[in-house]
Amino acid sequence: MNALRSPERSARDVGPLLERLARHVDAADGSRYRQITNAMTGEPLGRVPHCSAADVAAAASRARAVQRDWAARPIGERAAVLLRFHDLVLARQDEVLDLLQLENGKARRHAFEEVIDVCLTARYYAHTAEEYLKPKRRQGVQLVLTEVWEHHHPKGLVGIISPWNYPLTLGISDAIPAIVAGNAVLAKPDDRTPFSALWAVSLLEEAGMPKGLVQLVTGPGSELGTPIIEQADFLMFTGSTSTGRHVAKQAAERLIDCSMELGGKNALLVLDDADVSRAAAGAVRAAFSNAGQLCISIERIYVAKPLWEDFVGAFVKATKAMTLSGALDYSADMGSLISETQLQTVTDHVNDAVAKGATALAGGRARPDIGPYFYEPTILTDVREGMDAFADETFGPVVSLYPVESEREAIDKANDSDFGLNFAVWTNDAARGRRVAAQLQAGTVNVNGAYAAAWASVDAPMGGMKDSGIGRRHGEHGILKYTESQTIATERLLPVGAPTWARADRYARVMTTGLRLLRRLPGVK
């Protein structure tokens, strides 16, 4: 395993930026702060206010005060803000790439994926929001006699609770369609990674978004989660399934809608006609991007037996050749885990599996010589039921390999999970890949890819089946969920129902005849 020590680069390089970003958070008690840790070194990075429930309520009030005027602006004007934001993100990307690496520990190439994602999302909704949100004519019950229009109004205040693993993408990309739809946003980034989201909000305001429309509060979810739910008109949550269940109950009590992306134990299928070298390279990306701290990363790989030896050899070789580093440049293939807690989870899963009979073909150990939370990308075989790594989400650079006799066995074993977020299929036959993919119980499936194609295709919905979540982000679903739909129907000449001058029995006979005739007319719904 190649390794590079972190370069000599002090957190003081970004100190002024961190201090400026922290001032975007309003807290009544100016003496309470939370220290943020540099994930590469374990040393202090910066600090942000420790907000309270009262701060959440005050932030919600400020956001609502701005939202009404924002919603009254033409959609095109709101969309123009997103395009200017898109340009600013590209121009200032080095700033946020440093922030992402320092507060999260990820390799720069994986941090850049967040920059791409934010820009793709902003550009997409800037160009599509008006079409999605404009009033639409719908077919009336009495054809020409009933005129029906569908309208979409902003929910008002959207609450967003985001995790630490993709602090820019998940910290702001879900807010982008919400604000262009006319909403205000009350957001809480994870208390370990607040700076990337704060940076994005500052750029949105520079791009012309009204100051205060997006309010960020900083602090632990255990203290601020419930107050946010109590203030919001809609909730977007990304996190663990266990926390998601709790959040969903609270949202249900308030009768507010919610959308959630939750956990995964994602599977990759290597079919018997796959290109082994391409599949092995794809598996490296699928399993070890962002050090495996990715809800849509792969933790299970099912390999057709005829390809087993060749695939395992190629995959192990490619994995052992990876470079681990905390460098603030593009030299690393993989960076650090986020924290001691995450390192311990990964260590426990691997040690438990090996103690119970699994074999580590690559990796399997921490690398404190590089940084306090580094762990080698790890490939396990002989993982079986009863081991922690078998069914539980590891959320780290650990993947288990399984030989399968047939395509049917691969599909069945992939589906034998409580989770269904993102799967992958490798084959030389695209039609076969789509056919197999359609049988997999996952919200997104990539054929001959890891995760990027489905995620980055923002015109298509993204989300999970089973315990992996409810609702969808991206596409039409990703913006209309932040609106209240309204139907306005206007009657002309004749009412719906029997007119006062007609006998009810005759009206019923006429309508019955009419329905029978209309059934045969194409285009009539």
UniProtKB/TrEMBL annotation:
Catalytic activities: succinate semialdehyde + NADP(+) + H2O = succinate + NADPH + 2 H(+)
Enzyme Commission designation: 1.2.1.79
Presence of keyword Phosphoprotein: no
Protein name: Putative succinate-semialdehyde dehydrogenase [NADP(+)] 2
Catalytic residues in the record: E261
Domain of life according to the entry: Bacteria
Signal peptide from the UniProt entry: none
UniProt gene name: gabD2
Alphabetized GO MF terms: succinate-semialdehyde dehydrogenase (NADP+) activity
All residue ranges annotated as the Aldehyde dehydrogenase domain in the record: 31-488
One Pfam assignment: Aldedh
Family: Belongs to the aldehyde dehydrogenase family.
Keywords: NADP, Oxidoreductase
EC top class named in words: oxidoreductase
